[in-house]
């Protein structure tokens, strides 16, 4: 591995105007045009936070033709949670954190905890708890699904504790009288709970064709079993998009849907189940558009964002677009369980149009002055986006948290690649399997901090257990004649742990952002403006290393790939492309 000498050249940057006096609103507009060698000066960290929030004067608004938006731009990621969402009951949510997880991760409740949870559910079912303290049907569905699966399929260590047994014995005779039939079915599908011999669970079939299909599949899930590809897809297409009961004549109850989603994750999905989730809504709006670009990388960051560390992918995309590596980012405004910083929040804060259709994103990918784009799940897969509320109430991540990262909202006429992150060991193979199913030329999974896809320059901790941060695994396709795989394409697999120090980077801790959207933007813009430091190094590392690992043209040598990324920043080109995106995202139609 060849070490690099870092000898950056300073560049000029841009001047940001200040916020309009006495105005509580932000008018999200792009920053002024970039002129590297002329009238602009350095961005300083001490004034950048104000600059990020700044509003351009009315002349600039008129020049760019960008409308004023009637909203405030919140600085913290938690502010992006929709006010329309009801909050879950915290007592039950804490219990779900312990029990709505895998066979080895589950932590049974002790007697005090169990009695408190069951008492809370009973009082809520009786109508004694109102408003935000009420236990939702989705919470009940997820919690009782977890209890049922643990009893039926988990190893002895994570089955019911003695305290849970005593609590169930005390409360179930009372609960069965007040819980709705769908929740009784989830908790006691065989009607054998505590020897009461209830007929509700065995006879329950649901209301309408959608629920009937879901109930049939859920019986298998609650027993610890698995489903076929067509069965999972059939259920998802039948019940989504989710609408509150009463809004959709033939919809499914949130309790049944929550039980299905968390149950599949607790049973650890099979490949065919993950494929079903991944592909179910590929043509919700018809075939995806095809961008006329030679290379397109799909970035699948975790949709629930970062809560602690700098999120660099938006800025990496701006860098890689400078030399023909087009990038498509996708995600949401806010997603549980973490509710962290997302690309959509940053783009919204900076004034970009965050409601692009895949067809409009295609135009920006093809634009020689931009070369990257962002698509919200809200626009591309509204059926899946409709589950955000339920996902908050089931607490733990459902199968969709894995499969939504491996999407192709736009395809390319040239080569395609997918990059995504993972946290829990074992899911790296599942993600690579889905990428291959997508048919892309190259795929990469990264064990980044917080489960994100960004590599870090910090030193590996000696206390690390399991798969270390900066572990990478993937494949690239070789265009050579082969009889081993269809189409004459052979996939070359690889896995490695990236040590940034080997490539000339000084070890540094990852910058903290702690849910601050403005702080994350501040770090990214300072880096794209040429300010050297940890954020700059991470952007360079993740641009150059991804180029190399995916087999991008001109990135065969790692040092050359890293230098190319530095040049894209130090020339001002990467920052200019980000500003162009903010401006032009409002003009495509």
TrEMBL record:
Keywords from the named record = Glycosyltransferase, Transferase
Q: Which GO terms describe its molecular function?
A: glycosyltransferase activity; GMP synthase activity
Q: Which GO terms describe its cellular component?
A: cytosol
Q: What are the BP-aspect GO terms? A: GMP biosynthetic process
Q: Which residues cross the membrane?
A: none
Gene3D superfamilies recorded = Nucleoside phosphorylase/phosphoribosyltransferase catalytic domain (3.40.1030.10)
For whether the record's keyword set contains 4Fe-4S, the answer is: no
Q: What is this protein called?
A: Anthranilate phosphoribosyltransferase
Which species does this protein come from?
Medicago truncatula (Barrel medic)
